[in-house]
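note to self — DONT lose this again. spent like an hour looking for the file last time. sequence + predicted structure for the chain T wanted, 207 res
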Amino acid sequence: MGRGGASTDQGEGPERKCIATGEVQPKYGLIRFVADPDGQVVPDILGKLPGRGTYVAADRAALERAVAKKLFARGLKRPVQVPADLVDEVERQLARRVIDLISLARKSGGAVAGYEKVKDWLAKEEAEILIQAVDGSGRGKSKLSTPHFGRYIGWLSADELGMAFGRQTVIHAALASGGLAPRVVEEAQRLRGVRGLTDGGKGRPEG
């Protein structure tokens, strides 16, 4: 695992240097920032905003260091204003991104929610990723195991998972292989780092 929980088994890709740690790593484990026309630093979660960008590891401590040490001005090579809630805004946008991707997977038939449906997918080996709400019952979550050679996401709340499935709350969900699954994992790993988690979330069931 790389900093921020980004898996390092995704192959080589473009690399950038984190302004907070000085480490060079693949872009998928970093957050890009740009300055808007008014000179305010904004997160570029999708990496598509125009202008000069600078990068910080998807790691809460690294982000807080970049803010505290006023490193964005140096990285962007211009005077900038840093919002007081910048780190929290990064977390909000990443959570929204993960929710939206899971929702898209659901609409294409690549995701299910609910204990019985997830249990069925796991039994039929249709699930590659097990997703469980961090605030769900540990006893209930322990009854389902991460797919063999699969992945586990356990740091979204029941409310957040509910948003992805058009429900009030969801505790158990699963994604099939292929489709949007790799992108969900990649963005969820960045979110894990920004939420300050290093153990993959509490209550992880082992396969």
